[in-house]
Amino acid sequence: MTSYDRLVAVFRSRRSIRRFAERAVSREDMLRLLEAARWAPSNHNRQPWKFVVIEDRQAIQALAGSVGQSLAVKLKSLPPVASAYAREFVDCATVFGNAPSLIVALHKRPVRVSAALLERVSNPTLVSGEPLSVAMAVQNLVLAAHTLGLGACVLTAPLVVGEVLSATLALPAGFDVTCFVALGHPAESPEPPRRKTLEQIVEFRDDHEALGRHDDERK
């Protein structure tokens, strides 16, 4: 088996884990995961990340409770069609409460000097690169977790109640939450999810005539 085959085997066998055993994640393994994260690529090598690690089960459960309560209040304002999914959304957003460890990944806010340049850009945070850099670090982390026999699940739903996170987590100045990573020893073995085929997601544009057609379609 080639290095590529071994690497893709890791990609294919990784699952998002939402049920965890009671066993704690060792500090040695936690440091291994964070070491993997810090070697991710980043825009201009700014390494705009910080990781807040919470290993107190009561603190994790309390945070999940606060997130769930605040989300439930916000979701009451939705139209009836959407509110039917409110309970499911709250459950998904607070699944980290079952984990023995929680990693809160943070990205540094873009510097103000670039504000004028990004003023009319539709997705300025993507251009700045900070959240994307942290996302790549988190990908390193969850893949490393899988190789160590750990399970992880990345969550962004808690960001809907960012005011709760800011008040509870005492974030370092100049940083915002990118995502949560629930972490622990798996208590489930999910089946592989369906994946789109390459034909559905890839478009090769090495044909000059095809490129011309796409240009005409945009006009």
How would you characterize this protein structure?
The chain has 219 residues and is α+β, with helices and mostly antiparallel strands. The protein has one domain (3-191): NADH Oxidase. Helices cover 47% and strands 13% of the residues. It has 11 helices and 4 strands. It has helices at 3-13, 27-38, 57-75, 80-83, 86-93, 115-118, 124-128, 130-147, 162-169, 198-201, 208-218, and strands at residues 49-54, 101-108, 151-155, 175-184. Strands 1-2-4-3 form a 4-stranded antiparallel β-sheet, sandwiched between helices. Helix 3 packs antiparallel against helix 5 (86-93). The longest helix has 19 residues, at 57-75.
Q: Widest sheet: strand order?
A: 1-2-4-3
Total domains: 1
Mean pLDDT: 90
CATH topology: NADH Oxidase
CATH architecture annotation: 3-Layer(aba) Sandwich
Cα gyration radius (Å): 20 Å
Strand content: 5-15%
Number of helices: 11
Map the helices and strands:
Elements: H1 3-13, H2 27-38, E1 49-54, H3 57-75, H4 80-83, H5 86-93, E2 101-108, H6 115-118, H7 124-128, H8 130-147, E3 151-155, H9 162-169, E4 175-184, H10 198-201, H11 208-218
Antiparallel strand pairs: 1-2, 2-4, 3-4
Helix pairs in contact: 2-8, 3-5
Question: What is shown here, in short?
Answer:
This protein is of the alpha+beta class and 219 residues long. The protein contains eleven helices and four strands, in the order H-H-E-H-H-H-E-H-H-H-E-H-E-H-H.
